[in-house]
Amino acid sequence: MRFLLAREDTSGEEEDVLWGRCAEVEGLFMDSPPLPREILTLHGCPRESRLVQAVADSDEPVRLLGDGMLSIEPVDPSNDGPAGFWDLEDTAVLAQWPTPGDPGRVDIVVGTGVREDDFWGGERLPSTPRFDLWFPSIQGDSPSGSCRSVDGLFTPRPQRPTPPVRLIGCEPAAPLLSLLCRPLPQKGDPITLWRLDHHGRTMTSCRLDLDIVEARPSVLGGALIDVTLTDPGDDRPTLAARPVWEIWSGGVPTLLNQWAQFDAQGRSEWLDLTRVGPYVPEGLSGGTYHLDGQHVTDRNGLLLALGEALLGPGAHYGRDLDSVSDYLGGGLSVVPPFTLVWHHADIARHALAGHVLHHLGGRSYFEETVNLLREKGVTVVLQ
After folding, report:
1. CATH for 241-382?
2. Is the dihedral of CA 119, 121, 122, 128 positive or negative?
3. SS3 for 248?
4. What is the β-pairing status of strands 338-343 and 288-292?
5. What share of the chain is helix, strand, coil (3-state, %, to 5)?
6. How high is the pLDDT of residue 80?
7. Domain ranges in the chain?
8. Cys bridge to 344: 19, 194, 293, 364, which one at CB 3.0-4.6 A?
9. pLDDT digits (tens, 9 = 90+) for 310-332
């Protein structure tokens, strides 16, 4: 059995409840189609914000901001309404002009794909809302800017159906069996699907909605059943995750650079799997480590190579530069002072030259990584 089904205890007071096990999950991997393009107008963005500065500093006719997020939260959260969140996909700036009647602010028109992410406390706006925007291409994990209002956001968006998922060779535990005994189709609550490797170690997980349309004797025979989830939700691993999961299914990788064969998306999936360890004794410092830079051609490759250099194959040393900074500050990791010899450093220097971090003085991702390591007390030797 390669998968466990469990109901998470969101209160944190009890352990997760096992709902069943299954041998395989058919239709799990899915690349979501691009979101329909929409036009939003961000009214009243402060001129001093990183967002406006990044847009104003661009020499290109269209400034690409990439993926981001918009939040609408109450100015006073203690007594004023819920918070709402929207994902913004592949955002591009189409136009900008001074806000009428307010020279200290700018209106920005963007083209983007919009996904309503979540509401906290009900689907209504606060009476005094605050609009904040996050674009990692500008400001990392910090807010990039704000605005006073957004035109085009509150538009009905049809739900797009997702392909079904089939749990193959399922052994239902009591809670799932009880659900299956009711008349189908049956709408259930979300559960967590845990992927195990061949040693029974948890690799990763995703959420599925238990909208069950059919249960029948399994194609694997015996007392097993196959369960079809007609609307499992869109929290699904991408197609790029499948070959990565297959490698990790044999256990934590023991060879360096196994991730190098994958493109940026595959490397991102690999980086996700490294988050469960292995770890080293807390606060290990001193010594010399060697980073193999032959395959550092993107950000994920840099982070994977850094993790392998310091902690070994399959290890994790941060998902971005902010979390790398946290690891350098202590905890279950290698911490300064130590020496890092970066072999073939010019490969990363050239590959990441276009990945400029505007909020950090226009340094490239490579330059900022080296700068961060040295600021934290690491002796970096570029070779």
Report:
1. 3.30.370.10
2. negative
3. helix
4. parallel
5. 20, 40, 40
6. 63
7. 3-31+161-229, 37-151, 241-382
8. 293
9. 999 999 998 889 899 999 988 77
